[in-house]
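All the exercises in this workshop are built on plain-text protein records. A record pairs a protein's sequence with a compact description of its fold. Read left to right, the backbone structure tokens trace the chain's path through space. Once this layout is familiar, the rest of the handout is easier to follow. Here is such a record, shown just as it appears in the course material:
>
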Amino acid sequence: MGRFFISIIFILFVYLPVSSEEVEKVVIDFRTGSIEKFEFYLLKGVVNNIQHYRNSLKELKVVVVVHGNGYKFFIKNLDKSPYRDDKELKKRQKEFRERLENLVKFYGVKFEICEAGLKARGISIDNLYPFVKPVYSALKGIVHWQNLGYAYMLFE
């Protein structure tokens, strides 16, 4: 009988949702066009930090608002964009897309992108990866998430 109660307590402890006190939230202002910074800070850094929180039985919610020079990492067909001549990006695009998809699928990262900047650069919304949500402007997206309690972080 004692083992039964211990098992129930263990199951409740492991499977109960994380309380709001154990959830940290960050909105990342992502505007770099540097492949090195994109890979180090976004693809590796975000994963490492989310995993650190998970290892501590806590949660880190991440929203990335893309604008500036960061558009190029979220485009399906580079030939139909201002980044058509970026050889290094073309060479690594498939790898980057898979890693971005993993951030969404396994780590719950949300991606938003500035629609005003897309229009200014002649980039079609249809040419974005399906996991990227257009927002009116980067400012609107960042302010929205900050008003919901997300801390601000700049990746430039």
